[in-house]
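Trying the structure run again after the queue cleared.
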Amino acid sequence: MAARSERRSFWTWGYVSDEPSDDERNASAARLSARFGRDVNPPPIPDLDDVSLRPARIDVPARLAGFVTTDHAERATHTYGGHSMELLKALRGVFDNPPDAVAHPRTEDELEAVLAWCDAGGYTAIPYGGATSVVWGVNVPEASDAAVSIDLDHLSDVLEIDEVSRAGRFQAGILGPDLEAALRPMGLTLRHFPQSFPWSTVGGWVATRSGGHYATNHTHIDDFVESTRMLSPAGWMETRRLPGSGAGPSPDRLVIGSEGTLGIISECWLRLQKRPTFRATAGIAFPNWQAGTEAVRAVVQAKLWPANLRILDPVEAGASAGLDGTSALLIIGFESADVPQGANIRQAVALARDHGGRVADEDILIDDGGGKATGRGGAVGAWRNAFIGVNAGATNGLGLLSDTFETAITWDRWPEFDAGVRDRMTRVLADVLGEGAALSCRFTHVYPDGPAPYYSWNGPAALGGEAEQWQAIKDEATAAVVDAGGTVTHHHAVGRMHRPGWDRQRPDLFAEVLKAAKGRLDPNGILNPGVLIDA
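Done. Tokens:
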């Protein structure tokens, strides 16, 4: 597939066509003005041509000039990932650490050439997919003397489909929508839909261990990877394509989640499935958060494996699903290409009702293959629209500070964990943002042995002081989850943002093992230094 010709937005997620309109930004400003009791006006969007960048610190050799550039717009649009603090700097025209050059290799030979050039010159090499990293995973480190962003957008083909085994071989730069469009005529799907799906790439999913569509069972891209191919300064590493193996530690596990520190993933085989035709959905209200989470545990431990098993606490259910603000909402969804799902949804609903869940029989929606809409109306549909329609650009720069943090914890520790996190976050939000701050939680994924809670917070910010306020809150959030035994990230990756928590979480000896692997694959330490480990 040809690389997308439309330019990425430099101040919000996605492309120029994804940017919120002036009317949308003005409407957001009006809502926030009413909420905060102060006038809020959208800041002007700078002209990209007027953005100031430091001069490039390297010269591109003639042999690479066909696909490596120091163009102003290319350098600016490859400066940041997708975190709101990065995008706020971009919106204010601050690009203080851009890459010095941007490469768009069109073949693996060109990928080899640009990586060898970086290695010989000691230039930081940053693999770049869809730029949706929210953990500072594609940024130039401040200590870098020169850096090259290596954008894989031209390596975006579907190379092979094995319809018998139901697997596909994809180049790393293919975007989620393009992958699904290529599979649709064959009645196949990957069925991996992270929230960044419209703008993120296969290589990015594998490199960051992204979480996707399924709330149970197949939760991460890990579950779909059949083999990988990765280029490091030491050479190529390609794993054997197998349905499973017990032969030693899995080399794919070294690649998955390596976040561009060990090599550049060029392609992978991913397991596919038939497109679902049977569906069933229900939205179940609970009188309180605790009862709802106990119902989730009952359903997931029954191993019915619903595709969707997400519960929203009363704050989130009220804000995004239209409930009254006192009830939690559990969203259950089943799907299959071959088997009707009516029996499964009824069993799950029965378990939920045993824990105090309320849903009318007529609101249990079942599609036995006829194309009946499920999950598009009522509270479930309202939440779905709010989830899919997220766009940081609509509120950025308007005095609203907001972010999320996600983690995972075992069920036996969950109630105490949640209480402790909420206590610490409520106090820090009040201290930093004052009145008007809000905290909510939902489960994005659940396992028989524990949930993956996803906390969201927001509140009024001091214009110009957002970065300092955000950092104070983020530091407390990281400490809260790690102190209580949770993971610093369930599916957002480590990047540079989560290094403090990751350093506390992983065994020290494992860090030494990872450094040894990096020393062999990337002896000069040019690949994404500072992510996961120091070079």
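The chain has 15 helices and 18 strands. Worth checking whether this holds up in the mutant runs.
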